[in-house]
Write a structure and sequence with these properties.
mainly alpha, 7 helices, 2 strands, 59% helix, RDD
């Protein structure tokens, strides 16, 4: 794994580094599937525990879950999934597969946990998942938090080019 490098204050994220709409949509599809798999695994574990320990009330509740309870569970899993993955690595499973990551839109730095929490909460806005299909390809969760999803190879190439120009400017003869 590459070492974490300090982003120079003069560095700027440029439009050519941003993930295009198709890649963002693929991220979304992969992450939705991952969230459903997590929910399924949690349900199987809960059912197993309920059966093993003869927790009749839990079994009855699981058979009669209301839509509101179901949505509440899904929202919690979504918050945890995006919160944990993006806070620790700036990437989710979707971003890992597509070679993208989330950064601060202006500086390119890794977002703080607070920013990732806001970003994750924004995902709960109805139809937010499709907001990146609009004009500039940024979703509401990007715009409201000042973040961007970049293609890692382009981002790192831009950072390397920036560093090269910085070195060139700092040479004294």
């Amino acid at each position: 794994m590459a070492q974490i490098k300090q982003i120079p204050a003069s560095f700027q994220v440029t439009n050519d580094m941003l993930a295009e709409k198709g890649r963002r949509f693929l991220n979304y599809i992969i992450d939705v599937i991952a969230v459903y798999i997590v929910i399924l695994i949690l349900a199987v574990i809960a059912a197993f525990i309920a059966v093993v320990f003869k927790l009749e009330g839990v079994i009855t509740w699981m058979q009669q879950v209301t839509p509101l309870e179901s949505y509440s569970i899904a929202f919690c899993v979504i918050l945890l999934y995006f919160g944990i993955f993006e806070t620790t690595s700036a990437r989710t499973l979707g971003k890992l597969i597509t070679g993208t990551k989330v950064v601060m839109a202006d500086t390119g730095e890794k977002p703080t946990a607070q920013t990732i929490l806001k970003r994750s909460l924004c995902r709960l806005i109805p139809f937010e998942a499709f907001s990146f299909f609009g004009g500039d390809g940024t979703g509401w969760h990007d715009r409201f938090t000042g973040t961007a999803v970049v293609i890692i190879k382009r981002f790192e190439a831009g950072l390397q080019l920036h560093d090269s120009f910085e070195e060139l400017g700092n040479t004294s003869e």
